[in-house]
């Protein structure tokens, strides 16, 4: 019987993973074969954003990996259910079973998660290792008198947890006028997938996992240029073609007004002032006052820009102050940590897809 009390594991039996599941490895597709935006789910061997790099197109026909499976991160060893066809830009272990579905997969991911401490960068959770891993699962006797996994129990357990989430939603809709209650409920509702994945664990104790984050110098990520200065006396104030005037202000996205001058800088950039050292994303073309640095990267979008601005600001507030201002050399040498895609040869690069998806979900 399912309850909110401690789980009774007296009927759980240990199984060799390879005796229950079909285990395969994704076909590795080079990132050179991935083109632009598209509709194909692309996964990596990392854990950021549930192992999802983004949605892309391909430069030629490839056979996609079939859906309804669990994929495993190679180094962090986390696992995730895949409910749509996908491609892998790393070699990732896939686990399949004819009785697997989205609901019982969440139970299994929690069970496999308890084994993560057995793995590390030097001992990866690859298919040939996973096949001999042993896990305990709720079990029952079949018609032949032998134990087998109790798939129905796993499904019912998760459904009970999901019902709890639905009850939480009901409470939420009736407490919208109470800010503190609403804030707590919103946190839980926005993390309902995490609640299911880790079963009965209190998500309020969870912290953002940065184990796959790598350090980069700002100068390795961006071109950095001093913006063309437009002084106050040169500003044109008419009703037409107004553009944001960006200064060293730490408020209003760095904008001190709108004027009709020709833009001196193209949009889709990050800006940071010498004083204040606060980074903002600028979507549209703009004009600037004194001592504004413009940071550009070909992967920049509005969502990625918002993500990066937040990360840089966290670091710059600790580093810069009055008397130690943010000039080009200092911003160039500053380092930040970012979610990353780690390749089989140990090289890595920023996970732009994760940053895009993170902000997109946050703004939904």
Report on the structure:
- With 364 residues, this protein is α+β, with helices and mostly antiparallel strands.
- The chain is built from ten helices and 20 strands.
- The protein has helices at 17-20, 102-113, 127-130, 151-173, 179-190, 192-197, 218-221, 302-319, 328-333, 352-363, and strands at residues 12-16, 22-25, 34-43, 52-58, 69-72, 79-82, 86-88, 93-96, 134-141, 147-149, 213-217, 223-226, 243-246, 255-259, 269-273, 279-282, 287-288, 292-296, 335-342, 348-350.
- The strands form six sheets. A four-stranded antiparallel beta sheet has the order 2-8-5-6. It has a four-stranded antiparallel beta sheet with strand order 12-18-15-16.
- Strand 5 (69-72) and strand 6 (79-82) form a beta hairpin.
- Helix 4 (151-173) packs antiparallel against helix 5 (179-190) and helix 8 (302-319) crosses helix 10.
- The longest helix is centred in the middle third of the chain and has 23 residues, at 151-173.
- The radius of gyration is 25 Å and the shape is elongated.
- The two termini are 37 Å apart.
**Residue share in helices?**
25-40%
Per DSSP, the total helix count is 10
Mean pLDDT: 77
Beta-strand content bin: 25-35%
Total strand count, please? 20
Spell out the CATH superfamily of the largest domain.
DNA methylase specificity domains
CATH domain class of the largest domain: Alpha Beta
Distance between the termini: 37 Å
| Order of secondary-structure elements | EHEEEEEEEHHEEHHHEHEEEEEEEHHEEH
Integer count of domains: 3
What is the second-level CATH architecture of the largest domain? Alpha-Beta Complex
Rg over alpha carbons:
25 Å
CATH topology of the largest domain: Adenine-n6-DNA-methyltransferase TaqI, Chain A, domain 2
Low-confidence stretches: 1-5, 170-207
